[in-house]
Amino acid sequence: MDDNQEIDILKGLRAILRNWQFIALAALVGFVIAIAILATSPRLYTAQVDLNIGRSSEADVFRDFSGVSGSRTADIEIETELQVLRSESIAERVVRNLSLHEDRSFLTVQQSGIGRIRGFVMGQVSSMVQFVGSFSSTSVPVPPDFEFSEDDLERNAVERAAQRLRSGMQAASVRGSRVIQIRYTS
């Protein structure tokens, strides 16, 4: 090799050592940004299960007498199972059986760091508006109090929890099989 084409490692190390403050600052800024991202991003947890929709002997007998092709019937059966899994009534039964409508950790939406900051600012602004409003005229109409029965409150809580359950759930069939994949992210 030619002397002009050789790489001088010592020359490169000297350049790095001369600019060590800049490199240290860049590493520190990167570390601070990484910590900020970790602190402000919501934690997501995912659970997944695969269900095998096996064939029953009654379905085979029905298929023999009906003359319906097997693959079309299987597709219909899988689609029916998917609709049942995604249904509101099943979600409400799960919520009631697991008492999810009473579980604060399930009902609480985890916010990102920016969402928490926004909520704090909005709370402070709301407090200031109420404080200033207390000095203004007292002729502001007060909305009537609505009375809700315990059953209404529970039904509303169950519906909200079921909606939350359904919004985090995905159910899909695995192509070419009789397997349904259910995934829940919270």
What's the structural blueprint in terms of helices and strands?
Blueprint: H1 9-18, H2 20-40, E1 46-52, H3 57-66, H4 70-86, H5 88-98, H6 104-107, H7 113-135, H8 150-168, E2 169-173, E3 179-185
Antiparallel strand pairs: 1-3, 2-3
Helices, by number, come to 8
Beta fraction: 5-15%
Distance between the termini: 61 Å
The main sheet orders its strands as: 1-3-2
Q: Roughly how much helix do the residues carry, as a percent range?
A: 55-70%
Description:
The chain is mostly helical. 62% of the residues lie in helices and 10% in strands. It is built from eight helices and three strands. It has a three-stranded antiparallel β-sheet with strand order 1-3-2. The radius of gyration is 30 Å and the shape is flat. The protein starts with 8 loop residues before the first helix and ends with a strand. The relative contact order is 0.15.
